[in-house]
Amino acid sequence: MTELDPRSLIFVAGLLGLLCSAILFMMRRSFPTTIGGLVYWSRGLFGMVLASALFGLTGVVSDFFSVVLANAMLVGGIMSFYAGFRHFAGLPIHTRRMAVVLAFVTGYVAWFTYVDNSYPPRAVLVTLTNTVLFYACTLLVAQTTGKTIAGRFTSLVFAAIGTVSLIRACLLAFSFDTPVDVLGATFTQKAYLAALAFSVLAITLGAMMLANERLRAALEFIASHDQLTDAFARTAFIELLAKEVARSRRSGRPIALLMFDLDNFKSINDRFGHVTGDRVIIDFVQRTREMLRNIDSIGRYGGEEFVALLPETSLSEACAIADRLCKGIAENTTPDLPTYTVSVGVAAATDGTADANALLSSADEALYRAKANGRNRVEIALEEPGRRAVRA
Asked: Does residue 2 carry a pLDDT above 50?
């Protein structure tokens, strides 16, 4: 590090920032708009690039550019990182608060440039501001994405650069190894600039990992869920059913399956149109979710036919849930939609010998009887002895 001068380190940081900003900008153009934060991260890196360029021109351009504007761009760039992580997490950004802080820091730097020209006081405040922002990013990332590998890595990077910034602020405050300006060739100054250059690359890597994790999760959701209702798609539901059946067989706990069919759905499409028909299907899934438990899952089995998986649920409990759903759907609570009803077939395995295909077949058979017996009712699979149909 002794062979490197601060201007070279600033140049390296700026070059890395420019490259990383270009990468994030291209990602922003190709990634879905639902993945927030990329535009803020790209702007933040670009702001740091401009700050590095202006810092490197110290002694060549006026102090307004190399000191006041450069520090404002550096703090503003890190603020943009913080704003990006808040946007990524779906949180409000508080633009006005950050603008007030940035204006105060800029005014403070201008005072200690034009009124009382002194590098240490302005460097202390700028470094402390950056420290707070780095630690705020650490906390935000840890709270929102800290359970993922990308979240842990990114929060660790911010914690590390925040700690380096805090140490530098303390050294400046106690006048230890203090440079006379940003290009001062002291060991601590060069160590800080080197850490800042490394953090630009590491933060970008973390942001890319977070964006890719979010994209992968979105693609997995699209592949496993029905696009109209967000219920599980048929294949994904059958896979989930197989897993729950296997767990039921291991634990000996009961498992139940409900199969639904919207009654006379074709007439709804014929009378009101397919757009209204789609809205009825969406309404059914939303209302059914509200009446199911958190541990239950609903899937679209085909057309207007749906299935609900009820883990650790006995036949009597499943019948009570099905009866409540049947009655609840018949009570139209959506004024701008036509009234509709649903038929329900119930099947359950209570002895730890559940079989996925058998549950589906039994629920389907019970549903067929519910429709044959007049619709808007619940029927129980015949495999469960001593149970008779119950009218909704």
From this structure: no
